[in-house]
Fold each of these.
Amino acid sequence: MHKIAIVTDKLPDGRIGMPYYVSLTIDVFPKTDLIEWECQNRLPKGLELNSRTGVLSGNATESFTGTITVWARRTDVNMSCYKRFLLTVSQGEGEKPAGELRIQKVENSELKLGVNCSIPLKAQGGMPPYKWKVENLPIGMRLVDGQIIGVPAMAGGSFPLEIFLEDREGQTDSYFCWLRIAD
């Protein structure tokens, strides 16, 4: 029996002029790489959905709030699924009042292979306690008490990190950055 379902829960908010990256994921049986992705609606200028990888990325150049419908199709059998997502792209830093929750710029994103490191994540505004989530951490790295710690075990390259934050009032923010690991 074949099955396919988009399992990504929601899209992080974006900001004009800031890098945006989210890798959409699916549950597919039997496993296959023969998947095509498509967005049925118009995306904000500067963002695009990669039809092979399911990565929605780019630098948005306009504000946007709306629902987009994403389709995933198996190309080896006649089977597809879709999911609707709310996508919001705002003006950027100046748009959020001081009391609203936001993730501050991540410092020390250049690491060395095999060297122990710690990258503190910082929040501004909102109501503690904070809940952090980081996606796409390289092998050897983990999130502990609002810090990315560990010994990088994957060499050479840049890794896209998606950082999510929620406060006790349910306010959320997201942040995208690159983690570079030198040999």
Amino acid sequence: MKQKLLPLIFLFISVFSFSQENEFYEMLRYPKVLINEDLVAYTVHFQETKNGVELEEQMNEPSINHPFNISIISKENNGLIRVDNGDSKDIIIDFSYIYKGPEEDGTTMYHFNTKDEMYSATYFLNRDFNDFLTLEFNRDKNNRMSITYTISEL
């Protein structure tokens, strides 16, 4: 079931451009919410497009010794997502608001209104399965990278 969910996640994220997404959530009157969570991911899925060509998907080898520690810190008008695995440079994404979408099939989507349109972040909270945090980095329409962290509990 998890394998079927990943393509749907990527399809949904790629449907709208970043500025259109924010207007879309405002128009639908999705509520703005605060999330302050410390999460742990052991599995990471990478998808990259270079010069318009999608490269082969990659997934890390999960390791209890090298977890990805994810912090989501939000206030009323700002916040940040920080991803740290101790081996590489931290990923930090600033955002203004978090929009909460309606629950569908046990999944609630939270869209982060990022301050830079090159970045996108979406958190999928699943009632019955693992949660996912997807970060997208778009240099231009032909060059982008998507990273999906599978949130885990030991």
